[in-house]
Amino acid sequence: MEAFRILQPGFLTTVQDRGRFGYQRYGIPASGAMDEASLRMANILVDNPEGAAALELTAQGPELLALADLAVVIVGAEMDPLQDGSPVPLGEVFVIRRGEVLKVQGAKRGLRAYLAVHGGFDVPLVLGSRSTCLPGRFGGFQGRALQEGDILTSGPPMRRFHELEGRRLSSAYHPRWDQLVKLRVVLGPQDDRFTQEGVETFLSSEYKVMTEADRMGYRLEGPPIAHRAGPDIVSDAIPPGAVQVPGNRQPVVLLADRQTTGGYAKIAVVIRPDLPKLAQAKPGDPLHFSKVSLGEAYEAFRAYEEGFLRLRQEVEQKRGRKVYVFLVEGERFQVEVEGKGL
Amino acid sequence: MRPNIRFAGDGALVVELGEKIDQTINAKVQALAFALEQGKFDGLVEVVPTSCSLMIYYDPLKTELSALKERLIALGERLQEFPLPERKVVEIPTGYGGIFGPDLSFVAEYHNLSEDEVIDLHVEPLYHVYMLGFTPGFAYLGDLPQKLATPRLKTPRLKVPAGSVGIGGDQTGIYPIESPGGWRIIGRASVTLFDPAKDPPTLLFPGDRVRFIRI
After folding, report:
1. Local structure of A69: helix, strand or coil
2. What digits encode the pLDDT tens for the residues B111-127?
3. B48 touches chain A (CB under 8 A)
4. DSSP A172-214
């Protein structure tokens, strides 16, 4: 069904889900939400699958005309929304009526927010994903950022709105806007291509996000990182959060729309639970990298994933149902208990 | 050779099967990718083969790392048991020079050759596709005649048209979509290399052979 008409697109508004997997071997970027945690939390609040397609808003939000009654939530950067001119809270589900205008203002803190609608945004699946691939100009909404006049459709609502309205993130899930963005990294895959001093410089210095910071990656500026024998390697694949150091010895962190392969040595990889923090960093923001072991990284990842399970339990229990979600060897099991006796 | 395993963050690792661009090593990379897909394990997310290494994306909650390492080392030692599927030869009709190949004259001058000699050298080999990367469907073709190896542009172009055939160092390739690029453009191919409406979405795969046909 028709959900929104775009009155003003904002700075860069794209449709994103959790990304396109299985096609990097063809040179196709993974894409997906830069701040995956905010996307997943937004989807949980409006009772979507965590990987449903939502709008990624950047720096300056869009102005949208509702073409139906919709249950909506915005999670992420502090981009205050106005519903027909009246403020509505972030991180809390609200209902917008057909004919009302939702205006999302500029980001006061953070850079990206996710607007999810109950039912999910309905754009065609391309190679298994609804994410927009900006460098390849395909996927999402016609392979591009939204423009004035575009009409977005959403899937049909499965729940009554009163069941969703007012659901919100508890304080444990609110973003923390620290002055210094602290990122944990696992060294490698090519930390041996750097001098000991180079690795120490990387781990002990402050780096600032430069203006060349987009969905492909962030260029950083700070003390130069010395290679042992030049920056070039035989090209290999690039995981999300990889910190590449080219010939100018300044690090580049590669993100959602990164190219799949590259020929510069990678000193470290930011752990996935910390990528959402980086996605919220803006040009000029200071970053600091600290080393963790692979075991510590796995523990952090497990805790990160369990956070989403707990959030789903929290919001479901408020609806008077008992929901138990278990993680057994990586598989998720959900048991719902519903009935008059509860 | 025992493969060298490097960790790449909390959900990926790189298996190195060599350290240079070489068809024997590349065949091993593809055999390992193939072997892993034959015996898919639960935590396997995707594999990305490159010239001499393979990246394995895995789910750490479903993967016992020591078991995965053992499996990779065991597979690495018996790659000959996984014969690769037959690869195709793809002919690429290409218009050289003029507006299609703005750097053809530079490449000719750089090597003290005529433009025709450059074209003759470029159409001669049966190129091997080592890997796809950079942009969707971009195939890295090795085995460029040494006489044609040319350094990249100092400042990459912001827009290289789709289909452009370029030389970058000792490799050649075709730009599947309009993108920025620093390779020396000598011609334009009249084929679609990337179509997101198809699955698989690319014309070329690692291991394929490519021959350029002058038109």
Report:
1. coil
2. 999 999 999 999 999 99
3. yes
4. GGS----SSEEEEEEE-SSGGGB-HHHHHHHHHSEEEEEEEES
How many residues does this entry show for chain B? Answer: 215
- pLDDT, tens only, A74-83: 999 999 999 9
Does CATH number 3.40.50.720 belong to domain B89-214? no
Q: What does the alpha-carbon distance between residue A91 and residue A175 come to, in Å, rounded to a whole number? A: 10
CATH number for domain B4-81, candidates 3.40.30.10, 3.30.1360.40, 3.30.565.10, 3.40.50.1820: 3.30.1360.40
B51 and B18 Cβ atoms separated by less than 8 Å:
no
Residues 175-214 on B with a CB inside 8 Å of A are 176-177, 179, 194, 196-197, 199-202, 206
Could you report the predicted ipTM of this complex, rounded to two decimals? 0.94
Q: How big is the A-B interface in CB pairs under 8 Å? A: 149
Structure tokens at A151: 């009409």
For residues A241 and A32, the answer to whether their CB atoms sit within 8 Å is no
B28 in the Ramachandran plot: left (φ > 0), alpha (ψ -120 to 50) or beta? Answer: alpha
What is the CATH topology of the domain spanning A181-292? Cyclophilin (2.40.100)
